Amino acid sequence: MVSHDRVENSLSGARAGIIVNLFLAVLKAGAGIMSGSFAMMADALHSFADIVASGVVYVGIRVASKPADDEHPYGHGKAESIASKIVSIIVILAGLNIGYFSLQALFQADLPVPGQMALYAALISIVVKETLFRYTIRIGRETNCKALVANAFEHRTDALSSVAALLGIGGALLGAAYGLPQLAYLDPVAGIIVSVFIVRMGWHIAIEAASELMDAQEDPEFIAGLEKLILAVDGVLEVHGIRVRAAGPHKFVDLEIGVDGDISVREGHDVARRVKQELLAKQEEITNVLIHVNPCRACEEKRDFDRV
After folding, report:
1. Model-level pTM?
2. 79 to 7, 11, 213: CA distances (angstroms)
3. Pick the CATH number of 3-213 from 1.20.1510.10, 3.40.50.720, 3.30.565.10, 3.20.20.70
4. Domain with CATH 3.30.70.1350 in the chain
5. For 219-245, what is the mean pLDDT?
6. Which of 233, 225, 234 is CA-nearest to residue 253?
7. Band of pLDDT at residue 1, cut at 50, 70 and 90
8. What strands, in cross-sheet order, belong to the sheet with 286-295?
9. Contact predicate 227/109, CB 8 Å
10. Which UniProt keyword terms apply here (predicted)?
């Protein structure tokens, strides 16, 4: 996918998040106020937080799409990682918020019975947010946009909080209908359980974003694939080291190769040039390759052995 398509598709995913969350936040807030549902009001706050998260992702993608300049010679790709980090904080805070209010509700002596409007709002939210999650995660993975993937999981947390609200509201309504007031406590119990999952999800997003910001090495499978490509290039006898760091959709590769120590500097340069061309042609996410050329270690050791 060309860069322009990637940016436009990623931005469309972020815009969808802003528009849909705005609709749901207003719907939930209205339903919560009119039905007197505490759970639905908390769920509405989560949707408002989702609007902020989608906005952060939108700005992050915009900044990351800017070309390299004198102040940022490696480009602006890290903006996506920063956006992911901010989204992870929003997810964690949303999870803690749901857990806090659920604990408060758990110790209330008499939980109010909400109206049916809150139940319908929760059902609509689950369907819409799960659909939005699947749409956003597909675009995020197709475009290799980690910020959009993080935003997708934020949509999933909102769907989970709506599930908790649905259980609580449904439990309260059933309890009122069958004279079982204890069923009203399904809401805070479900909220506490969901909050744990949401915080865990946010923590996972935060760790992944931090790894990219700290230039963590790519996974061994990707490195092994690069090594196979490099060794297939004519003139490369050894691979002494490969380091890869990511910046949003871009990957920067630093590597050392071993060549015949008796060839000229120009010949060694030509080998390195072929390696760079091969990597850039076969791995479209690689933006630049820096290569250090060394004499082949095995050749040098054999030469030393022959001299003895």
Report:
1. 0.73
2. 13, 14, 10
3. 1.20.1510.10
4. 220-307
5. 91
6. 225
7. very low
8. 238-247, 250-259, 286-295
9. no
10. Membrane, Transmembrane, Transmembrane helix, Transport
